[in-house]
Amino acid sequence: MRTITATVPVNEPGRTDQVRLDRDEVWEGLLDKARNAVPYVAGMQECTVLEHGPDGLVREVVIAGERVREEVAFHPKRRVTFSRRDDRATWLIHNDIGEDERGLTLTFSATMEIPEGEEGDGQAERVREGYVAALRSTLARTRENVAAGRALSTR
């Protein structure tokens, strides 16, 4: 098992041309992504919520042609956790809202089955790059929804 992490600023310093997001708006974007990840995650073809409760949901997604069942846990206004445990793969993915000296951050952290060695290193880097893109697309889509005045989710 390997852990891969990446952090991006929510509001890039010096970018006056973009809608500035606050913690509540980022949280709503993460909830929206949990409920329907298709517009947020490249390669995801389907996302169906099977069960929904106050602390999370169970969903079935199709990503890169593979049907996967995920449990999603909500830790209000700070973390969304995605977990998969089946005979094909195991992973634990966190999307964390944090803060540093420059402001809000969004961090992806994943623990998954990736082999050690050069082959695994390349695979881990591709996973990291893909998730950085997903973080950026999540923030971009959230900005679009906020700018358009669209409600992202129902609480």
From TrEMBL:
Q: What Pfam family is a match for this entry?
A: AtaL
SUPFAM superfamilies in the cross-refs: Bet v1-like
Record-given protein name: Polyketide cyclase
User: What organism does this protein naturally occur in?
Assistant: Streptomyces eurocidicus (Streptoverticillium eurocidicus)
